[in-house]
Amino acid sequence: MKKSKKVFVIWLPALSAIFILLTAFSYFGSGTSNTPPPDDNLVIPENINNIFDKSCFGCHNTESKNDKAKEKFLIDKLPGLSKVKMVSKLDKINEMVEKNEMPPEKFLAKFPDKALTPEEAKALREWAVATSDLLLKK
Amino acid sequence: MRKWIMNALIAVAGLFVIIQFFPSGRPQNKPVTGKDIASVTEVPEEVGNLIRQACFDCHSQNTRFPWYSYVAPVSWLVAKDVNNGRKNLDFSKWGELSKKDKLKTLDEISEMVGEEEMPLKIYILMHSEANLKKEDRDLIVQWADETAEKVFEE
Predict the structure, then answer these.
(1) CA end-to-end span of chain B, whole Å?
(2) Residue segments in chain B with a per-residue pLDDT below the cut of 70
(3) Where are the beta strands (DSSP E) in chain A?
């Protein structure tokens, strides 16, 4: 009796801790988990996220000092947009990349390594179009 | 000295005459029946009046060309702005846009009017009726956002 009680006292907190940690991991590490995203939630795939990080996020984020870029498009706010606005923004991404208007020439003159490779541009555009198509179908 | 000024004036006047012979590329108005925004979508009268006053000169086939728009070099600027304007948004051909293009354009209208990027400053300078008040801008923004919701549900 005494022994089993001791085991209980040690194992219960330990198991709870493991359980909480696992839950936390699956919650915050959703990018790598296998659970499908909820229906209405935009989850930016890792390869697209990397492209955003490299070439776009520097200006298009909430903390950016580039006011014009901030007004136009915030990557960190994209998943929280209404479906209508999300479709518009996704199509705008496609248009801007297609026309080579983004990233801007001036910016690329300073940071040539931030330019999109043809493969990256293609992947980004295909993702934007496919995602907006999907949103329109729902 | 005076002779020098005279010569300069004559040269400027001569140049002014010569540039009149360069075509401006000013576009024609070619309305498309049944495709304009008011026949495709619901446009409240107030909003309709506002966009007619402030946007249609460049963003429709109902461009009013004032006399000075026939005189170079102003004609060049007018031609460039109208051609560009129609390329990005032509309210007279609204019905030809795909659902996606409608949504994207409505978002741009909402953004550009709301953030005072449109109408262009140089246009407002010559057309005081295009100088939209805050309430006018709010009306257009609200209409564009609501119309986008409707287009999305279509």
Answers:
(1) 73
(2) none
(3) none
Tell me, yes or no, if B97 comes closer than 8 A to chain A by beta carbon: no
Give tens-digit pLDDT for B7-49.
999 999 999 999 998 888 888 888 778 899 988 899 999 999 9
Q: List chain B residues with CB under 8 Å of A87.
A: 100, 103-104, 152
Block residue for tokens 């409240």: B44
Longest CA–CA separation in chain B, Å: 73
Phi, psi values for residue B47, rounded to 5°: -65, -40
Give yes or no for a contact between A62 and B75, defined as CB atoms under 8 angstroms apart.
no
- Please state, in angstroms and rounded to a whole number, the distance separating the CA atoms of residues B139 and B47: 7
State yes or no: pLDDT of A21 exceeds 80: no
* Mean predicted lDDT score pLDDT of chain B: 92
Q: Note the residue count of chain A.
A: 138
- Dist. CA B67–CA B88, nearest whole Å: 25
- What residues does each domain of chain B span? 25-153
What pLDDT digit, counting tens, does each position of A49-71 carry? 999 999 999 999 989 888 889 88
Helices first, then strands: H and E counts in chain B: 8, 0
The span from the CA of B112 to the CA of B51, in Å, is 13
CB A16 within 8 Å of CB A8: no
Residues in chain B, total: 154
The reply to whether residue A89 touches residue B99, judged by beta carbons under 8 angstroms, is no
Contact residues on chain A for B149, CB-CB shorter than 8 A: 84
If 0-12 CB within 10 Å is exposed, 13-18 middle and 19+ buried, where does residue B132 land? Answer: buried
Q: With residue B116 as reference, give the H or E element that holds it.
A: none
Gap between the Cα atoms of A33 and A28, Å rounded: 9
